[in-house]
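Let us work through a complete example step by step.
Step 1: write down the sequence.
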Amino acid sequence: MNTWDLSGLYEGFDERYEKDLAALDEAMDDYKAFIINDQKLDDVALIEGYLSRREDIIRRVMTLGSFARLTWATNVNDQNAPVYLSKIQRIMQKATAEDVVFTRHLATIDLKELANESERIKTYFYILDREQKEARHLLSEKEEVLYAKMRELASGSWSNLQGLLTANLSVIYRDKVMTLSEVRNLAYDHDKTVRKDAYEAEIKAYDDIADAIALALSNIKREVKTLDDLRGYASTLDKTLFQSRLDKEALEAMLEAMEDNQHHFARYLKAKAKYLGHKDALPFYDLFAPVGKIEKTYTYDEAQDIIKRAFGGYSDTLRAFAEKAFDKKWVDLEPRKGKRGGAFCSNQPQIGESRIMTNFTGSLSDVLTLSHELGHGYHGEVISNNLPLHWSYPMPLAETASIFCETIVNEYLLEQIDDDKTTMAILENALQGDTQVIIDILSRYYFESDVFLHADGPISKNKLKDMMISAQKKAYKDGLDHDCLHPFMWLNKPHYYSAGLNFYNFPYAFGLLFAKGLYAEYKKDSKRFVRAYDDLLSMTTKADVRDVAKTMGIDVTKKEFWSSSLDLIRKDIDRTILLLEKN
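Step 2: predict the structure and record it as tokens.
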């Protein structure tokens, strides 16, 4: 098993971990005392003291919390990880009242004037300005403290339930017991009967946990909607846009461009359906069916070699990063019982590292997923040079580096071959991902919008199934067979189950299309781009999305930019359809 090495964080929940946990507790007490200190500090001293203490707390909590979360992600049955996560959460909640006090006071200060007196305030002006804007949505101190404490027992527990039930779900596939991740990975198998049987086994298995997870989902969204109403947000989407540092104008321009191109994706899906022997539209279980000549299963060593060569074609720095990630065992690779499904990268800028989890089984898609997560890791490498309060980037920009790196690998693979069937296999595999990030993301956006409309009470599993089917029909149009969709796609996507991350769907589309636009700029002038790109990644933690994009001459509020990025995908669609019809 290729498992990650977490020793850069901790060796275990040992004496050193306990000591650092106690030190975090002391740091929070110091922060509390500083904020409520009777001494009348001037505003510069107050803000500078606040900033230095928050930096220290962030360093500590990232290390402690990440070790527990990463341990739990690869073993949901670990008994210590959730206990320590609860302890950390309670420590961080100790200062909820003081956070409110400081933020309310910050709202009364002329930050521009103080920035002229303090280089530290000037450096963190953007972050402080956002805190001022958030102040108008604060509840009373007592209410904020109460919610912070109750959230762990409410949405936090519902989220944990979804993770536990899906990670431990046993799926009966052809009389064999498998994990959910293993069965879902069979969607990429070359045998159509395997894909269909796996899909049917997956759907059947969900019935055992669907009622509980439907209750979890609806209660999380009810909590979110209730709190957002109390805080005075016009909607949860408006709050998400603020958190995402994204203009509504930019989101609407992007969604409109995506909807304009739905019929092109439907053309591709119907061409794939015909290639696979279906009469008209594509059944859901064949969305990820491989086409063309590649029937190869990649080893981890082969995947590493492809990625290192492709990254090296972009820059020596990117290749060196990938080599470091592989050599230092930052990757937890294969699926296993008790390990969560999917893939993610966890940046650890406080130690200058990252950790990557995948469920690699050797498909071409798995190779690209690995390159995608390494892109996140490279983003983390760049921002590790920033100050601690500049370690967090918004959701729409979170996918920029990952999709850019995935594009580099895909283009590299296309350059290595010269026969139609292999070209078709690589192009179509990329289109599978593009379809997920554009069309399936549309379905998830439609679905979650619908959930919030109905989040005034519990939503049954049957209602959620109907809502998901409706969203898929609206997004995929006639590209998918309406008699063979996936009514449970809400159940296995963890992004729906975080009260703090709502509408975690459109950022993926933003990331894909923004990265496509950036890649086009790279092809125009590679030397200039490579120098400017790292500066852009560094800036993602310090500015609104619109201003980050402007550094590359991009206006994200204009539909034309999104349409031009989609034109690049449409060219791949046209080329792929020709190859599908030819072969």
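Step 3: interpret the result. The first strand starts at residue 170 and ends at 173.
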